Amino acid sequence: MTRVSLDTARKIRHNTAMKSAMKFPKIIAAFVLAALVGNAVAQTNFSFVAAGDMRNYLHAKKTDERQFDGCCAAIKAAGAGEFMLVPGDADPMASVRAVIDENLGTNYLWYPVIGNHEIESAGDVKWAQAWAAQIPGLVRRGPLGAERTTYSFDFGNSHFIALNEFYDGKSDAVTKADVCEAALTWLEQDLAATKQPHIWIFGHKPIKTFPDMDSGRIRHGEDSLATNPAHLERFLQLCNKYQVTAYICGHTHGCSVEKVRGVWQADSGHARGAGDAGAPSTFLKFNVAGEKTSVDIYRADANGVNYTLKKTVALD
Prior knowledge:
Layout: H1 6-10, H2 24-28, H3 32-35, E1 45-50, H4 68-78, E2 83-86, H5 93-104, E3 109-112, H6 122-131, E4 138-141, E5 151-155, E6 158-162, E7 166-167, E8 178-179, H7 181-193, E9 198-202, H8 229-241, E10 246-249, E11 255-260, E12 263-268, E13 282-289, E14 292-299, E15 308-314
Parallel strand pairs: 1-2, 2-3, 6-9, 7-8, 9-10, 10-12
Antiparallel strand pairs: 1-13, 4-5, 5-6, 11-12, 13-14, 14-15
Helix pairs in contact: 4-5, 7-8
């Protein structure tokens, strides 16, 4: 089978008409070649962004404000990188994807993961599952029952793992977050199999909640990706054992980049622009330069505009 570069595969348009989740399988057909990629020549220097928790805050009603549309415009201005990771609460998913199309183009790749608000809507879960029928750069599908909401993919010299924390070993849309035994077993097998020097895991809830780096606000202070202490301990052990570069999350609406017991945690905050006055709207831009990795933190003003680079953290 002939391999093509991801850059070439990205040029295959996936149709601008995302009118409904039920029509989405026609759109993902355009990603068939991208799913076969594996990168003919591994890139060692590239960037990608993370933005999430935008939910319904997509277009502001006031003329001097912006919401997620403004975040996407700022991402484009800063250099959108190769793709976007979305660590959950991107519902309604079809509408969020439409804003990305409007601002970053229909060829721009995204990799969503389930958050607590997606599981409140059967339509959003089905949309995510339909998108996952053909995942660009796919390496491995998730465990039984979560084959379409947990997955891993490769790009360049990096391995990425999307972890659905609302999976209990049977259903991939339960209300209680945890990294269950089946998920942990799958995760360890996936981590053990990769030969990539950089490993990125992204999921919705944080390992530990930190105050927003600018406003100091704390939301969901007691929440964690694993409600079972033993499961949380094993997750951290796996991250350290396999030298995970960073765990990327959301949920809190507060941005922070901190180490938790030896593991870098990058919380992308919220990307809803002026839609949340408690903390500035944020996107994270991750940079891979050979063996070195870092993250740039971009934050907006109170109106959801004028995103500026606030801080760069070396992920060493």
